[in-house]
């Protein structure tokens, strides 16, 4: 059973971190990140060729995280695999001991490091959630019984800040109907936006882990606004970091504040450190989450 | 409308050189390539003038009424029998189907003068947008007449994806997100903004290669319909 699910079900406020597997086979840096997060996180997301750039597979890296005694959240994107490969990797994930699954669409290859690649998108994230829910019920996409079912804790992404909200709300409801039990959000800067998202999810019994991006520098903010599709850092937030003498400090303080108000609204926080892993334990502790 | 674009002229010349073509017949198309101004009379005559200027003899030219119509093209070849016979190669200014249809009805080597891009709409003169990938199982009944297979850059049946921002697409940022448009049009028409996601596409419905006999279709077609 997923410890993340247990914690959320018990009403404990959870903390999740995020690591990107290496481009290569040297796991040293990845292990260091995991060790940094371990004392303060309930689980760690392991990204799947994030930003459509090549990395070691999430499947293998998630298993490494598990062997280190930390619970991974295995991310699976729809971009790189057709439904045969997705299903077979889901079975692999379960047999490797991975209990948490985050289904995401995936960024378009045109924005990644292999822009010539074919974006597969044979399934979309809602359909993939349905497939995983079917696996939990013991059958594959063709309704054939599995020899041994899964019991994934199925999660999906959501974007509380994005308009139009009716469309986003419908998406949340559709994903929950498809079998999603928890959401991890993109970065949220406005508490009201988090409130509206949590209301929808809670009305249908799903949990929300709110996203915090550590905006470590002006460069990082510009990168996010330009490259990470759709994620716009509001002016008043950006200027607070950009105007600071010590931008890293300002970013950490901002993250602590965010974690504190998120605690009043959501079921957990998901910290995306943008390389500033070392700050994660401080943020968690200063916000009083551990 | 099949939208085509002229190939680079140097490439066309290299293709003809590969065929050792000193005498060339040029075939255009009276349908799509005429509308897209890539293989109509004007473009065929321009290609003729250019070839002649560069020392290639043009034995003749014609605009197939529908270059992708086998019996029509057979007739065209017959009409221009002498001009075909004396040519070393045929340059076809039509879509890939038009090129192949022409190649099927003559013994002469045939070479394409255009690249075929997509099946689309003439948004206005000279501006074309892809609208259908001919997936074999249309979902337009559920999507307010907007095709997500074709017009969402990721081809997602259900969306928007996580990168949509203020109604705009994360991949092509100067365009509206197709899934927002679909839901808004459904809502404007008072139709349910569906809570039932579209099921995964049945890719076996897109025949590869496509082939259908409509006459046999009255009995049973290979396209799945009866
Ligand atoms: S759903 Fe398929 S057939 Fe219908 S418009 Fe789109 S690609 Fe064409
Ligand atoms: S933003 Fe909308 S149109 Fe663009 S890729 Fe995502 S779902 Fe498709």
General description of the model:
The complex is a heterodimer of chains A (290) and B (226). With 290 residues, chain A is α/β, with parallel strands linked by helices. Chain A has one domain: Alpha-Beta Barrel (TIM Barrel). Chain A has eleven helices and eight strands. In chain A, helix 4 crosses helix 5 and helix 10 packs across helix 11. In chain B, strands 3-2-4-5 form a four-stranded parallel sheet, with helices on both faces. Chain B has 226 residues and is an alpha/beta fold. In chain B, 31% of the residues lie in helices and 19% in strands. Chain B folds into two domains: 117 residues, Diphthamide synthesis DPH1/DPH2 domain 3 (Rossmann fold, 3-Layer(aba) Sandwich); 62 residues, no CATH class. The mean pLDDT of chain B is 93. Chain B starts with a strand and ends in a 9-residue tail after the last helix. Classes of the chains: A alpha/beta (290), B alpha/beta (226). The structure holds iron/sulfur cluster (2 copies). The site of one iron/sulfur cluster has 10 residues of chain B, from helix 7.
